[in-house]
Design goal:
One of its GO terms (molecular function) is cadherin binding. Keywords: Calcium, Cell adhesion, Cell membrane, Cleavage on pair of basic residues, Glycoprotein, Membrane, Metal-binding, Phosphoprotein, Repeat, Signal, Transmembrane, Transmembrane helix. It is found in: Cell membrane. This protein is mainly beta and about 725 residues long. Among the domains are: about 60 residues, Immunoglobulin-like; about 100 residues, Immunoglobulin-like, CATH 2.60.40.60; about 100 residues, Cadherins (Immunoglobulin-like, Sandwich), CATH 2.60.40.60; about 100 residues, Sandwich (Immunoglobulin-like); about 110 residues, Immunoglobulin-like. It is built from four helices and 37 strands. Strands 30, 32, 35, 36 and 37 form a five-stranded mixed beta sheet that branches. Strands 6-12-11-8 form a four-stranded mixed beta sheet, with no helix packed on it. Strands 13-19-18-15 form a four-stranded mixed beta sheet, with no helix packed on it. β9 and β10 form a beta hairpin. It is flat.
């Protein structure tokens, strides 16, 4: 309830409420100030509310007092039962554990206020699972309540746990959960054979390493605690058998170590021991964790194939032995009670087996063809022996026949040697080591001797030194050799073997004389090198030849370029006749200045004029009579000019561009006729050129050139 001191009870004050839950959870009477809850409250949802209240004037709506804040706390009641948030639980404990062994701790949560009353104080108890387990009422720790609980008796336990608030008092709320407890295995039980004697029957034809029977010891434990190891106790017959453990079934698998023979022994007896691999020292007092049983094996008689007297036969025969010669025999017997005769034959696989035959009754082996050790030194084949009474029962044996050598071939030098000797060699110097080969046997089984042939000269230049290890050295006997005197030497060497009869051969070594340096390194063995200058080495000669070749290449390139340049100049002079216009900075020599432009080229460019006199300078005192050109020359010039004119008309690159083509021919049809003195009938002596002096300094040169001079015909050559 809210009340203001200014409220006189006459209805002039109005109360307002704001804050958490105002209008939704709480409401206020505007006249009296009473606060009411309009719905149920849950402390677990919201434990307190913060509200603000104020008194205002009804008429003016103005606050009469400052706004005040207050808190409404929700008081807790026991309305929530304890809950196991992690349940149901799963736990395990080893079997045979003592009383009070820890199993698991459970925990229940109560949503009520733990600070107010006993609403949140929880007490634990067991509703189901006694007398095997107990629980601490305050902590919720579960422990074993009975000693020596055996997994082999009962493995799974289900325990029902209750948690009750209000301290377990009457009226408190409770919650439950389930705990599934499993007893884990320990090795508390030894293996035990279900019976003391095991009987097995085994055929004598069983293969070595094959399984012939199984026995099993029972262990009620689980997992690795039930793993069993089997062993054969040393005794009668135990050395013929072995036993291993099948990891999947934990059975003992008996295997055969050696072959059985009914005719030799018909029964075997031995003991087998079964024991655990993983022992627990806590249970040693119970007794030994192993058990023993007896195994009796009876061998069954079987119809067996013949048995050879040896596992393999090795024989020897000389090559070229006559066909039909007996070289050995194989023997097989039927060891069964009713002995049967045996037949022999070769196991044919390839054509090699045809070199031998075997007697079907006696088993003797004879040659069927002539043998050659050099072609094949060893033969390997199989012989089969079968019963006459039952041909399907057969056995096989391997036969190896070595062909012995007969000394047929002489030894020879192993490889063609390229032997050389230096000109500056000293006496006793080894220049070559030689070896030999023999087709009869490998070098490891043969001894060779080396010597100089009797065909050698009395005073040989070289000698042979036998090292007595199937090698020999070629040694020099002179102090220096000369290639100019003799380039090649031929040395006959005799090689003998040590077999009977002795075989020998003469082999000729070719020794070449070479030029060497002071260290004995060969520099040249060619014949041409003899005539080279002594003072020049091979590298110096190569450098000189290379320089000569480079100089020749430079000269050839220079000449080729000069020829190409001359050719281009000549072609230009012949092709550009029409552009041959000469310009002078002075007045020149007049009409007689035709040296720069040869008019003969217009008539016939191929004509070469001789004895031309330069006319671009002032002529000597000699006077030459002028000759009138013939009509034939004029015709040639006209044709040439017309031809050039036509070529220029059709040539797109020809004038009109800034170019001037000048020709000597002036054409026909002029009324004034030619103004040139070329066609004049008078000579230079008839002409008077004195008037040129009156034309001024520009014509001074012409006046000097054509002035009056005496003409002397005797000076004309």
């Amino acid at each position: 309830k809210l009340h203001s001191d200014l409220d006189k009870g006459v209805g002039t004050v109005k109360y307002t409420l704001s804050g958490d839950g105002a209008g939704t959870v709480f409401t206020i009477d505007e006249t009296t100030g009473d606060i009411h809850a309009i719905r149920s409250l849950d402390r677990e949802e919201k434990p307190f509310y913060t509200l603000r209240a104020q008194a205002v004037d009804v008429d003016t709506k103005k606050p009469l007092e400052p706004e005040s804040e207050f808190i409404i706390k929700v008081q807790d009641i026991n309305d929530n039962e304890p809950k196991f948030l992690d349940g149901p639980y799963v736990a395990s404990v080893p079997e045979m554990s003592p009383v009070g062994a820890y199993v698991l701790q459970v925990k229940a949560t109560d949503a009520d206020d733990p600070t107010y009353g006993n609403s949140a104080r929880v007490v634990y108890s067991i509703l189901q699972g006694q007398p095997y387990f107990s629980i601490d009422p305050k902590t919720g720790v579960i422990r074993t309540a009975l000693p020596n609980m055996d997994r082999e008796v009962k493995e799974q336990y289900q325990v029902l746990i209750q948690a009750k608030d209000m301290g377990g008092q009457l009226g408190g709320l409770a919650g439950t959960t389930t705990v599934n407890i499993t007893l884990t295995d320990v090795n508390d039980n030894p293996p035990r054979f279900p019976k003391s004697i095991f009987h097995l029957k085994v055929p004598e034809s069983s293969h070595v390493g094959s399984a012939i029977g199984r026995i099993r010891a029972v262990d009620p434990d689980f997992g690795k605690n039930a793993e069993i190891e089997y062993n054969i106790v040393p005794g009668d017959g135990g050395n013929l058998f072995d036993i291993t453990t099948d990891e999947n079934t934990q059975e003992g698998v008996i295997k055969l170590k050696k072959p059985l023979d009914f005719e030799t022994k018909k029964a075997y007896t031995f003991k087998v021991e079964a024991s655990n691999l993983h022992l627990d020292h806590r249970f040693h007092s119970v007794g030994p964790f192993k058990d023993t049983a007896t195994v009796k094996i009876n061998v069954l008689d079987m119809d067996e194939p013949p048995v050879f007297s040896k596992p393999m036969y090795t024989m020897e025969v000389y090559e070229d032995t006559p066909v039909g010669t007996i070289i050995g025999a194989v023997t097989a017997q039927d060891l069964d009670a009713g002995s049967s005769s045996v037949r022999y034959f070769i196991d044919w696989k390839n054509d090699v087996d045809s070199y031998f035959t075997v007697d079907a009754t006696e088993g003797t082996i004879a040659t069927n063809e002539l043998l050659d050790r050099e072609s094949k030194a060893q033969y390997n084949f199989s012989i089969i022996a079968s019963k006459v009474s039952n041909p399907l029962l057969a056995s096989k044996v391997n036969v190896i026949i070595n062909v012995l050598d007969v000394n047929e071939f002489p030894p020879e030098i192993s490889v063609p040697y390229e032997t050389s000797v230096c000109e500056n060699a000293k006496p006793g110097q080894v220049i070559q080591t030689i070896t030999a080969v023999d087709k009869d046997l490998s070098p490891a089984g043969q001894r060779f001797s080396f010597r100089l042939s009797s065909e050698a000269p009395n005073k040989p230049n070289f000698t042979v030194h036998d090292y007595r290890n199937n090698t020999a050295g070629i040694e020099t006997r002179r102090n220096g050799y000369s290639r100019r005197q003799q380039e090649l030497y031929f040395l006959p060497v005799v090689i003998e073997d040590s077999s009977y009869p002795v075989q020998s051969s003469t082999n000729t070594l070719t020794i070449r004389v070479c030029r060497c340096d002071s260290d004995g390194t060969i520099q040249s063995c060619n014949v041409e090198a003899i005539f080279l200058p002594v003072g020049l080495s091979t590298g110096a000669l190569i450098a000189i030849l290379l320089c000569i070749v480079i100089l020749l290449v430079i000269v050839v390139l220079y000449v080729a370029l000069r020829r190409q340049k001359k050719k281009d100049t000549l072609m230009t002079s012949k092709e550009d006749i029409r552009d041959n216009v000469i310009h002078y900075d002075d007045e020149g020599g007049g009409e007689e200045d035709t040296q720069a432009f040869d008019i003969g080229a217009l008539r016939n460019p191929k004509v070469i004029e001789d004895n031309k006199i330069r006319r671009d300078i002032k002529p000597d005192t000699l006077r030459f009579p002028r000759h009138r050109p013939t009509a034939e020359d004029n015709t040639d010039i006209r044709d040439f000019i017309n031809q050039r004119l036509q070529e220029n008309d059709v040539d797109p690159s020809a004038p009109p561009y800034d170019s001037l083509a000048t020709y000597a021919y002036e054409g026909n049809g002029s009324v004034a006729e030619s103004l040139s003195s070329i066609d004049s009938l008078t000579t230079e002596a008839d002409q008077d050129y004195d008037y040129l002096s009156d034309w001024g300094p520009r014509f001074k040169i012409l006046a000097d050139m054509f002035g009056e001079e005496s003409y002397n015909p005797d000076k004309v050559t």
